[in-house]
Structures are given as C-alpha cells and as structure tokens.
C-alpha cells in the first residue's frame, strides 16, 4: 500500500525526525511503500508531486500543531490526523490504528480546523479520525525514579541529567530521587497516571507496583547520567507495560536494564549501608572516651559500643542477606533471607556467608512462588505461610549443615591473612583497592571495592576500609586541585565545576570528578587511578584503620575514628597532588566541561 506520512512538531527538530524515521521503519515492516514528508530543520521538507498524491491510498499526519501539516493538500483522500506525541511510543500500533480509523477528508472539514493553534477545534467532525482528542493532547510527559546503592551522588546527578534532557527535548519531566535519606520529590499518583512513560534509572531494586499499567523502561543511573537524551528516546521506543503485582514485564530483561546477581548484591549493600554507617560512627564516638573505655560497664562509652557494635553491626549481615533475597523474590524473600543472614552471623561466616544466604533464600523463595502450584483455596497462604516456612527451612538447613562451617573457615583465614600480612602484600592490596575506587567513579568496579571494605567491618577488619575511603576521595579532590593550579587551561565553567568537585571530594563522593572524566576520560581516569593507587598503598603501609565507612575527612574530627590521623591525611594529600598535578600537566588547553546533563 502506498502511504504518505507527514510529521511536524513545534521545535521542528528531534521529535519530528524521530517520529518520521520510526514511522517509516514501521511502515516498511508492514510491507507498505511510505513517502515521508518531514517538516524539520534537520532535513528539508519535500514537495509532494501530483503522482505521489494520486498514488497514495492513505495519508497519516502526525503533527503538533496540525496547521504545520498542510492538510489542504489531502482533500478527497483517506486521512488520519493525530498529534506527533501519539505516534512515538508504539509506531506499529499507531499505523494499525491509522489504517482502521482513516476517513475521507472533505473541504468542509478544513474550516473546522484552527490553523493558529496546536490542535483542532471541538467542531471537527468524526471523519477526521481521532483529531479532536489526540491533537489537543499535550506533549508526552515523563516520570522517572533514580536510585544508586549509596544514594548520595549518582542518584541526584542522574536525576538532574534526565530533567535537563527532558526539558531540552520538550517533554515535561518529573524525577523522584530515592537517595540515602529516602524518597525526595516523590511522584504523585496523578503524575504517574498522566505520564506517557516511566524511566527507572536504578542500580538497586525499587518497588514497581505503583507503575502497574504504565510503560516502564529500566536502565542504570550511570547510563542515565552519561546519555540522558538516548535514555529518553530508548524509553519511548522500548518501554513495556508493567504488569500488576510487580512482576517484570516480558520474558526477558529490557535492553536498558542491567539485572542479575550484581544488581541483587548492590540492593543488599544499599540497605545495609545506613546500618554500617550508623554503627561505625557509634563505635567511633565511644572511642572519644578512650580506646578501651567501653569495657567499663555502665559508662556512656559502653552504651555507645553496645548500640554500634552490639546492635547495628550484628544486624548488618541479616539486612544484607534479607535485601539480596528481596531483590530476587520481592517481599517473600525477606524473611528467609534475614534468617539465613543471622545464621551466617552466628556461625561466623561473615559477609560472604550473608551473601550466600541472601542468594539461596531469594532463589528458593522465587522458585516456590513461580513453580509450586497449589489449589486455589490455599493459594493465598503461599506468601504468608508456605514460602516463608519452606524457604526459611531450606536456607537454614543449608547454612547450618553445608555452608556455615567452610565459609566460616574461609572468613577466618581471610581475616587472619589481612591482619598478619607483611608490608609488601599490604601495599599491593592498597594499590589494587585504590585503583579500583578510581577506575569508574561510582560504577561497578568502584562499588565492588567499597562493598568488600564494608563487608570486612563485620569481622572487625578495618584497614581495607581506610584505604578505600582515602582513595575514593582522591579523584574529586584532584580535579579540584588541577582546576586551581592550571587555571589557564580550564574554562570558567570548568573552574566552577572544580570548586564543587573539591567539596564533594572532602565528603568522600568520587562522582564529583565525573564531569571531567566524561569529557576527557583518557587523561582523567589514569590520573585518578595513579593518585588513588598511591593513596591506598600509603594507607595500608602506615597501618591506618577506619571504623566508619563514610564521611570523608570529616570523620577525622571524631577522636580515634582513625588510628593514625596525620599519616592518613598525608596519604590523601599525596594522592591528591599526584592526580591534580598530573592532570594539570596532561590537559591540553581549555575544553568545556558539561556541568549539568551529560548527553
């Protein structure tokens, strides 16, 4: 079938071009022969010839405003008119609807069209398809949720990038951040209902049930931060309807969604992290009264140690395991996961045992939920009785009789090795952990190193955590230093970004260096890794031990939180100088660093 497809939008740029290309591809998949009349600044609009008009069996107009489509050319032809926004989400369905609803356009219909406004007047008769309702519809709106494991930097930077990109593309965009302090700018039910697409840019599991029935696209915070425009366009093209009940749509994962064991692990780490931070800081506060002051019962130091080490740190592994299982199996996984995690803790299997318990409980609960079919009369008992009971029983027995003893031995050997290793091995470990922290600035490698250090805190092994936090501060501090000592090589926005980066570095937020790394990765990343490796090595060499897993340099204000504060500070300064001076020497003149959305 010969088809004429007309696209136009107010900006005359990206939306027009995207709609035209997607409709053309969909039409060819239908076996149609399309002629595209695109009103865009990217390509000049064509003048339809008489032969093309005569041969056309159907005219499809996707335009906002409709006036820009030139409908007078198509009088007497089968025409379907709609807003361009209606064509974007599902072009094949849009074409099928256009074919079924097209009507003969009469000259009298043109008088009912308001050529001065975006859309049609209410007087348009039904034979112009769905023009009255669809053309008057506003441009597509987007709602999004961003969440990263630590809930500090990537969460908010990805939210800003999506918001900026949405505004640049002309789409109203609202972003909810689920950071370390909980949900901020929470989406309302009405905003979700009105949205055309939902973007979940999350590195951890978030509850999808409130988006049931909406078209949902999943991706990572890193992708949304670095390629926000691409993320939005991919969302309109590939989003799938979220089923009721929170199940994942479709038989496989979406292209933009990075799932699997790593994401489940990060979900557990994300929920465990506040427990570790609170517990570590409580322990550090107890040291204000002296390293051994907590041993005297009835004192404030003893109470702080009981809260931090006796309660918070004991809950670390059960929370880790419980929320790994939650990420896998949703709510039915929490009970067996936490039971398995507590068993791992009491069996001295440490965080490795907790990770195993979480995955075992999660996949057991998921298998029971999916594959065990019961009579309808007792099916409702599965989530509250059968799954918790059976999954907890299986997980507990496996932990006690199979996993607990060998993993406890492995953790004991690892702890003893870390505590007794010589200077050379300590330096090598510090180099490895420091380089990992600076490799991808909050990405998977960075998070793997951080999770390793946090997990060892439960075994009272504090040296790796000290090296990890020190090295993690270096990239952002180094970029701030470079923008200061080589001002002539940095444009004004770059110098402003450098100031913000330095402050973020003081707070142990490596992501402050991302704007620089995104623009000049071949120079920034090696400079950061060099500084981070030196810092990690020096921290391990001087025997630094840190009980608090976050807080940056401000943790040094707590007496005894770090055992060798001046040497530790010296390690950070050394790494910062290497990164800052190194990049200042390598940088080739002023290049604009994007300080907002990186597209």
Automatic annotation (TrEMBL):
Q: Which GO terms describe its biological process?
A: phosphoenolpyruvate-dependent sugar phosphotransferase system
The GO molecular function terms of this record are:
carbohydrate:proton symporter activity; kinase activity; protein-N(PI)-phosphohistidine-fructose phosphotransferase system transporter activity; protein-phosphocysteine-sugar phosphotransferase activity
| Domain PTS EIIC type-2 stretches | 261-596
Family annotation (Gene3D superfamilies): 3.40.50.2300
Query: By what name is this protein known?
Result: protein-N(pi)-phosphohistidine--D-fructose phosphotransferase
Q: Which UniProt keywords apply?
A: Cell membrane, Kinase, Membrane, Phosphoprotein, Phosphotransferase system, Sugar transport, Transferase, Transmembrane, Transmembrane helix, Transport
- Which InterPro entries does the entry mention? Bacterial_PTS_Sugar_Transport, PTS_EIIB-like_sf, PTS_EIIB_2, PTS_EIIB_2/3, PTS_EIIC, PTS_EIIC_2, PTS_IIB_fruc, PTS_IIC_fruc
Annotated region (Disordered), positions in chain: 238-259
One Gene Ontology cellular component term attached to this UniProt record is: plasma membrane
Instruction: Fetch the Pfam families from UniProt.
Output: PTS_EIIC, PTS_IIB
What NCBIfam families does this protein map onto? FRU, PRK10474.1, PTS_IIC_fructo
Q: Where is the PTS EIIB type-2 domain?
A: 1-100, 142-237
Q: Where in the cell is it found?
A: Cell inner membrane
